[in-house]
Design brief:
The chain is of the alpha/beta class and 438 residues long. It has 16 helices and 14 strands. The chain has helices at residues 37-41, 47-52, 76-94, 103-106, 113-134, 161-180, 203-224, 248-257, 270-275, 280-290, 316-328, 350-377, 379-387, 394-400, 406-416, 427-437; strands at residues 31-32, 35-36, 43-46, 98-102, 137-142, 185-188, 194-195, 229-232, 242-243, 264-269, 293-298, 300-302, 307-311, 337-339. The strands form 4 sheets. An 8-stranded parallel beta barrel has the order 3-4-5-6-8-10-11-14, surrounded by 4 helices. The protein has a two-stranded antiparallel ribbon with strand order 1-2. Strand 12 and strand 13 (307-311) form a beta hairpin. Helix 10 runs parallel beside helix 11. The protein is globular. It starts with 30 loop residues before the first strand and ends with a helix.
Length: 438
């Protein structure tokens, strides 16, 4: 290895291990619920935080410049290939099966769209060779339609048709790249699909533009024979003040309005769920109930700052509840667990990058094992079944019948002297039950 020299591929050493560069809970070969742990979790590592971002923030310069980016100013394509080399080295050290990337993560920006497109094509060929040599797979590809100033008013929702066209062309290129690399999903992440003020915004027009844009994406998916899943990633507030893709329920309403609910699913991020005022498990449960669950980005926020800090996850109880909803819905199909997480600016060593992923993978392993046990032993499901058991009785069938009106029900309640008594929801008991597993 060139960049991660001296760091051996991580192995499972068990809970007694004190080795920072080993797994204590993640045993990819362990079997439960009919699959290995690796098959259940389907881990992926992202390009953007790990190989592009070098530790800058709004108050400070890069705190950990990476060797693979050193040639970016003099020879951008050589630097892009070096970045790919470094990425696939880390993937092998961690033993993950998947990765994810935006177009600009992998290729240099060209002076024109055509040049950027050629750059992407060249680097995708290089990435394909790396995949063939290592067995790595692409969980999903996506386009960055938010960083460049041209996207400051959005991409699909932009008031300028030239930006809309440029965005559509970019997505077509990225879908081709994802198809070439055998990607299992394609993500539409609308980082700036929203507005800052109503004073200069036509809401109906912008949402119609987005609906038309996504419909063309679906058409293109079928045209090129892409068999993967199209995903939308909900995100509130950041960076645009009012986002059209605020949360899972909002995305579903949008999909229903434009007849796309059978074609698109959601990629749910933990940090975005919190920003929307929800829990991670809530967003997953809503997506499962609506039939649009697809994949997850696993991370966490700093709860004191209230910002999308993209920290590596370390809260096992939260993960257990999230994976409980995922497993209850049948588990991942084309989706997986992508670590959309980044180091803190003071964690400057490459070993920090490895340890961060190792710890996160261990926490996910602990969480999904707890979730699997809760499903197997059914303490929560049995309680829920009992709580709603009345809806399997005669009264429920009678009042639900189409022929029965509100007037009929009113008469029925009065005649039978129906007088329901409150029943405890036993929330504290159930929280204690969960704590026994985590």
């Amino acid at each position: 290895m060139q960049y991660f020299d001296g760091i051996e591929p991580l192995k499972f050493e068990g809970q007694s291990s004190t080795n920072d560069l080993a797994f204590r809970h993640y045993d990819p070969t362990e079997v439960f619920m009919g699959k290995t742990m690796a098959e259940h979790l389907r881990f992926a590592v992202c390009y953007w935080h790990n190989f592009v971002w070098e530790g800058s923030d709004v108050f400070g310069q890069n705190s950990f410049p990476r060797a693979w980016n050193a040639l970016a100013d003099s020879d951008p394509m050589t630097a892009a290939k070096a970045k790919t080399d470094a990425a696939f080295e880390l993937f092998q050290v961690l033993g993950v099966p998947f990765y994810c990337f935006h177009d600009i993560d992998a290729r240099p920006e060209g002076a024109t769209f055509a040049e950027s497109d050629r750059n992407l094509s060249q680097i995708v060929d290089y990435m394909q060779g790396k995949q063939e040599a290592t067995g790595m797979k692409l969980l999903w590809g996506t386009a960055n339609l938010f960083s460049h100033p041209r996207f400051m008013a959005g991409a699909a929702s932009n008031p300028d048709p030239e930006v809309w066209a440029y965005s559509a062309a970019t997505v077509a290129s990225c879908m081709d790249a994802t198809q070439q690399l055998g990607g299992e999903n394609y993500v539409l992440w609308g980082g700036r699909e929203g507005y800052e003020t109503l004073l200069n915004t036509d809401l109906s027009r912008e949402m119609d533009q987005m609906g038309r844009f996504f419909a063309k994406v679906i058409d293109y998916k079928h045209k090129i024979g892409f068999k993967g899943t199209i995903l939308i990633e909900p995100k509130p507030q950041e960076p645009t003040k009012h986002q059209y893709d605020y949360d899972v329920a909002t995305v579903y309403g949008f999909l229903k309005r434009y007849g796309l609910e059978n074609e698109v699913r959601v990629n749910i991020e933990q940090g975005h769920a919190i920003l929307a005022g929800h829990t991670f498990e809530h967003e997953i449960a809503v997506a499962q109930s609506l039939g649009i669950f697809g994949s997850i980005d696993m991370n966490r926020n700093d709860y004191q700052s209230g910002w999308d800090t993209d920290q590596f996850p370390n809260n096992t109880p939260e993960m257990a509840l999230a994976y409980y909803e995922i497993l209850k819905g049948g588990g991942f199909t084309t989706g997986g667990t992508n670590f959309d997480a980044k180091l803190r600016r003071q964690s400057i060593d490459l070993s920090d990058l490895v340890m961060a992923h190792a710890g996160a993978m261990d926490c996910c392993a602990r969480g999904i094992k707890a979730a699997a046990t809760m499903l197997d032993e059914r303490p929560l499901m049995d309680f829920v079944d009992q709580r709603y058991s009345g809806w399997s009785g005669d009264l429920a069938a009678e009042i639900s019948a189409d022929a029965v009106s509100l007037s009929d029900i009113r008469g029925m309640v009065a005649e039978r002297d129906i007088n329901p008594k409150p029943v405890s929801g036993r929330q504290e008991h159930l929280e204690n039950v969960v704590n026994r597993y985590v």
